[in-house]
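Tutorial handout. Part one gives the primary structure; part two gives the three-dimensional structure as tokens.
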Amino acid sequence: ATPYVNPSPYDNLVYHRGHAKGPNVTARAAILVEASTGTILYARNEHEVREPASITKIMTAIVAIERGDLADVVQVSADAARVAGSSLGLAAGQRYKLEELIRATMLRSGNDGATAVAEHVGGSVAEFVELMNARAASMGLKHTHFANPHGLSAPGHYSTAYDIAEMCIWGFRLQKFADIVGCPELWSSPVAGGKPRLAYSTNRLLWSLAGADGVKTGTTSRAGHCLAASATRDGLQFIAVVLRSGARFHDASALLEYGFANFVRVDV
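Part two.
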């Protein structure tokens, strides 16, 4: 595998002196980061290791975009079609363009789609997961490890709010990633024909929050309700991550609005 070169303008996220203040949130772990500088503006249990659920698919998309040919045609395997949990309703033998499959997977959080992408780009799910973990290491994510490409609970599958925020920052450096996660809806159909289907994003903030431009929801019984969310206004981008939240959209929205209301970037 080709080694990744780290182009990050900073080695680690930097804490703002007022990071302990901020809105009350229900999430067990949370963080708010200004994306261009990596400045942490709010943090709560940000290094606590937790299951990320389908937020996992952020890394799946990053690796697939970086490693795959988006014009490739992916044939859905029987193994991918039968993966449990949230689903795109894929059938074995169906063929999709890789880019369209990544888009649908991120939009509707399809575990079947994530598996099909992984099999195609990595050669197998196991090999793709190795690429995910190598990419996490190259990003400097010290408390993240993946066991699958979709986020279902599994031994050795974990991350932190802090690491997820960094992962999102990395993702947004890829224009294709930004385009995909900021898309609120998608028409998709198999390459060989078939009835087009309209799918809507699971990220409600794309409709309800001014400037919202991604990123990914996640839910399992063990992880609880999770969300990584981004919003940009007047060139200023904030990323909020909330894990095991009782009101994830409210929590993330409150954090993002707190950022816009209380912080400005000063270029010196």
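Part three, for discussion. The longest strand covers residues 224-233. The chain is about 35% helix and 20% strand.
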